[in-house]
Fold:
Amino acid sequence: MKSIVFINPYFGKLPNFFQLWLYSCGRNEHIDWLIFTDDLTDYDYPVNVKVHYLSFQEMIDLLQKCFDFPIVIDNPYKLCDYKPAYGLVFKKWICKYDFWGYCDMDLIFGNIRKFISDDILNNYKKILKHGHFTLIKNDLEGNNLFRLEAVSYSNYKTVFTSSNVFSFDEWGGITPILEANGIQQYYDNVFADVSFCYDFIHLMFIDNDYVPQVFIWDKGRLYRKYFNKGIIYEQEFLYIHLQKRNMKILFDINVDIDKFLIGAHKFFISDDPIDYELLIKISPFKLFYLYWIKRRSIEIAREKINKMKKWFVNILNNCILY
Structure:
């Protein structure tokens, strides 16, 4: 089995559900994580997550040693732009691994190796295109992919010498640059990227998403239950991305948990059967209603456009006949 390690520098207070993040890492026992942080909170780190304590300035110094020009990092968020270069920066920590990667801390992982097989790893230099979960082959070419350039996109020197944030780790940088250079990247909608604008809507399936729904993490497996046309369906995911959401935790996270549910703004435990009544109960009504109105408005607009098209075609046909 190919070996994988994720590299996660994080400075400042770690997210309030970081312990749940750690639990989901611990269930992926064949994958390792390296945490570089100044948060000294006593978390229950699983054996496959290694924490290294250092200051933000020490992190900047570590990055600067890898480049012969002055880099700019005014705040921790700017580190996102440096993620594609982590294979170079942290090479002494990752030499034994086949792939290294970076991921966000506002995720809950499912069974990673179920979705990222050795067959996929053998055929791609880079896995997934979003910055919240990315894997890159740990070899000379993979560790220097960030140096490639493409027309209309800022190169790494421009990015590393500016205080602006370019999203160089994802769609704003490395992803389209590699595409322009003919580097194939594995991509599939195997993750749940939850919108921060709507009520728990899956961004990848926004035209065919289902409300209400709930996500379940059960002994390392992540899946959702959703209601559609009178039936409760189930769908498994690689991970869920809870970006920019204020999540309440309605149980004791200091006790090792085997199963919990993920709602729109909370983690909770329930022994009730997951049926339509439960899904409605845990869905914030106002946002659900606004989403339904939005979707229905789009449907009505499409109906009107189709009627206008038919009316216009009839006019043309009549003009041709006469």
The radius of gyration is 23 Å. DSSP finds ten helices and 16 strands in the chain. The domain at 4-186 is CATH 3.90.550 (Spore Coat Polysaccharide Biosynthesis Protein SpsA; Chain A).
